[in-house]
Amino acid sequence: MGFRKACVKSSALDRRNGMKKYRHIRTIAFDADDTLWVNEPIFQQTQEKLKALLAPYVNPAELDERLYETERKNLHLFGYGVKGFTLSMIETAVQLSGGLVDGRTIHQIIGMGKEMLEHPIELLDGVQETIEALAPFYELMIITKGDLFDQESKIARSGLAERFHRIEILSEKDEDTYQRVFRRNGLKMEQVLMVGNSLKSDILPVCRLGGKAVYIPYHTTWVHEQVASQQAEGFVYEEIGNLRQLIRLLNPGQRPALDDTELLIEGDGFRLRRFARSDVGSVARHANNIRIATRLQDRFPHPYTEEDARSFIDYAIQAEMESIFAIEVDGQAAGSIGLIFQQDVYRKSAELGYWLGESYWGRGIATAAVRAMVQHAFSELGLHRVSARIFADNAASRRVLEKAGFALEGAARQAVEKNGRLLDVLNFGILAGEQG
Hints:
alpha/beta, Rossmann fold, 3 domains, 15 helices, 15 strands, elongated
């Protein structure tokens, strides 16, 4: 989920202001390697092959160190990319073997470099979806560094080229370079958002210039791009877990943003908060009830085990297009309530779902939680409509929704089969301004 670096926990007002943070953004600039497609693992796989090839001359740990040192020294000559890496591998092989490495081995290293250049483009998870979602609302741009020919080839083979209005392939990415790029393209700093996986190259230079940046960590990072944690202290940027979350963060077309991440709703005898993995026991205990499962879809299992609870909580913590809260009563997670955000022309709507442990039925907690969630949807997330669907025989949920201000909008006859029975589904809805 999203976390704002170097910021104290925000209040509800701060969160509302935070949702306006990106309203002036017109251009989104993406790094390419390990932000849009796989890159560093290809280098690491090749380095492992080099270790095996040079095993007669050097131990693996020393090779890693010597190869990086050679790469670092050669950057000002060869720049970044596969070709410079290949030349550095050859130079390292010659040095570590004392000049004994033969022509056949050199030929093999060259072949490894060619394989890297011809490696198929593997888009990272969510890239295609995110680019398609953002393209109608923003001018998209690539700012990447490396060998010109190699980067042009990767962009062309990615299938994404036509989605980007501007492409900048640089030899280095620092403050001066970014300033020149923005000036050359007639871009205003306050209207550009930089997105990338490298704090050193993508995030901190833009932050130092007073710009906005979103950091998406990749599971592996070249040592040259790594920075100590203290180097990032004092800079404000967003961190998200994957590229899909950029959709909600930027809120294109008024789609709900991620700024509800730290939200805490206090109620009378309960509160709504984010799930924690320590909630597994209490969730399993309260959810393991046939009277609850009978009223919900089959994806809510019975019996409900701790493994089921663990899977649900992991999902709730990582949910991208849903906002899911625990209903905490007496200090324990006794239920769940959430919004499923709708997309495309339905983007101002969300569907509500909830359940509460039987121990707390009849105390008005479910109704109060629904009211709080609806208020959150309208005042914090900018939605206009919240809907809910229940089985026609669920009289208790009907009372909860009606007390919370929902109106019955119709029925879908025999729309579901539950426990061998065909049941009608009642459709309820509430609009902004209608809640009591």
